[in-house]
What we know:
Layout: H1 15-23, H2 29-33, E1 39-43, E2 55-70, E3 78-85, E4 90-96, H3 101-104, E5 110-120, E6 123-133, E7 142-146, H4 155-165, H5 178-184, H6 189-197, H7 202-231, H8 243-250, H9 259-272, E8 279-284, H10 290-303, E9 307-311, H11 315-329, E10 336-339, H12 345-357, E11 362-365, E12 379-385, H13 392-400, E13 407-412, H14 418-424, E14 429-433, E15 444-448, H15 453-465, E16 469-473, H16 488-497, E17 505-508, H17 514-525, E18 531-534, E19 547-552, H18 560-567, E20 578-582, H19 588-599, H20 603-614, H21 617-620, H22 622-625, H23 638-653, H24 661-671
Parallel strand pairs: 4-6, 8-13, 8-14, 9-11, 9-12, 10-11, 12-13, 15-20, 16-18, 16-19, 17-18, 19-20
Antiparallel strand pairs: 1-7, 2-3, 2-5, 3-4, 5-6
Amino acid sequence: MKLDTPVSVLNGVGPVVKKGLERLKIKTVQDLLWHVPRRWEDYSQITKIRNIKPGKVAIVACIEVINVRRSARMKRLTITEAILSDGTGTIKVVWFNQPYLTTTLKKDQNYLFAGNFEFKNNYLSLNSPSFEPANEANFQGAIYPIYPETAGITSKTLQKLITQCIDTTEQITDDLPDSIQEQAEVVGLGEALHLLHQPKNMHDVERGRDRLGFEELFWLMLTGMTLKAEIQTEDAYKIPFDLSVVESILNQLNFELTDAQRKSAWTIFKDIEKNKPMNRLLEGDVGSGKTLVALLALVMTVKAGYQAALMVPTEILARQHMVTLTNLVKSLGIETSLLISALPMAEKKLVQEKIHNGKTDIIIGTHALLSEGVEFDNLALVVIDEQHRFGVNQRRKLKTKAQAMPHVLTMTATPIPRSLALVVYGDLDVSVIDSLPPGRSPVNTKVAREIDRSTIYFMVDTLLGQGQQAYIVCPAIEENDITGLKSVEAEYKKLQKSVFSHRRIAMLHGKMKPAEKAEIMEDFRAKKYDILLATTVIEVGVDVPNATVLIVENAERFGLAALHQLRGRVGRSNLQSYSYLFSESQSPMAYKRLSAMEKTTDGFRLAQIDLELRGPGEIYGTTQAGILDLRFANLLDAAGLAKAKTIANNFLETGEMLQYKPALERVNQLKKLTSLD
């Protein structure tokens, strides 16, 4: 049997199973071996019924009585109940919608049962356990791999199929050099997969996970270090520090910078003084003042005789920055221009000419800045707001529009734990603004149920009567009976006719034309509306200090990072602000996540909780960050992270990577994932 052997040749793979495997993207033996368990249940210790306690248990027992009945409340639900005995006692066992078990399980025959013994429906029982005939091999218990499943494909089915081809793990190519495996003290790739599929104990599972986890971290860190080294081979404009430039901006403000802002600004100034390109991430919580720090760098660049650009993800944010920044730099004789796709062609060409001729100093725009026809005169600094990755290819694209590689400052208001930043941003230096400006009150956050709605609406209406404003966020644009989610359009119609009929309400969502979205946002900022009903289009950067209330519908459908960003739309003045997260979910995970929002407004702490509960993909989402599909790496293991970083750094510095083709191929492949595309 070979790795490319079709799974259709395996025993037990008929038409139905084959279709199920295809849904899991399993077509070959290699695909099957890489379909790794998502968890393992440890039933290696057999428990006597007389000693049984609530929790995960494994028992060897026989069926004394078994029958099936229909649920009194749900007619479609069948309940199979049995009494098990092992000579030391008896317990009840329950399965749902498996009536065939009455013929599958034979009375007076020993089986190994494994599952949760818990208090449910007013009695203790073993609920939906897995089982198999007891024999010498399993009489001592076992470790059961639990796989990602689909209709018709259970973990037991996958275990049987994998058993037939497990020896082919020896054929798997291992890209990790032997020297690296020795330094990391990890097993080979084939052995790791074997251990994960057929562990003898939980130590085997850990050995397999350690290998795959180390490899994930090693390649990502090596890629980051390679990118960092490549960028440092380029030349950049030197931008000398000028104290008078900083004072010219700060004198216009009615507040002082926080210590964290000062420290971050100084680090940036020292970077852009060099003739090597800055590649820095400015990370800070919502409302911590990152934009002001970036503005200081933009003005410093212009006063040194160069152009600077601010690139943002949405046209709403671009227009907002255009207004804010223009007001601050106009008195300094600095010209600003807006470049977005929605501009009329004639106006767009005029802006492009000003950029090319050096008649404009700071250019604010979306990805339109990278489009054909945009040629800079002497671009020296690019600030990217809320763009999580800005790759080498985009830098080079900007370089072709300028004379030298620009300095790049990336900003994000989605705080992430330092452990994750070390992996995700291996090619960037990181500055953190970890304090908020003085005078900001924490947003009062509550998880709400339907029973609370009338009370909350009354409180919101009272605040609106005082001249304040509110956001109501829904996960959907249009009503859909299947999902049952609250939608912007349905809520807009309902609230206009009911509780807020006397208030001015606007709605905003992604299907609207850019000009329409911009007009609604400006009118809301100008207090022409009391309530803005929106989707997460308001999540990033929208700044309306008079908005003090946020209501999020179906809050369990959003990640903590998204909820924290949404909460950042209020609490942007000295007025007390409120956030209400409506959810009817019964999920313990959902409750735990939402209750974390009540307990802290610290974005870094919330990011840590997200990492612990959901894994790294939740923090940014794999579609945005690309490389965050970390299935085995333990990002809470500081020692493991440090080890991977040290080994990757040595591999790069000794030049061993250049002599190892698989490593070069892997790094080049991961480089592509830093693309903005």
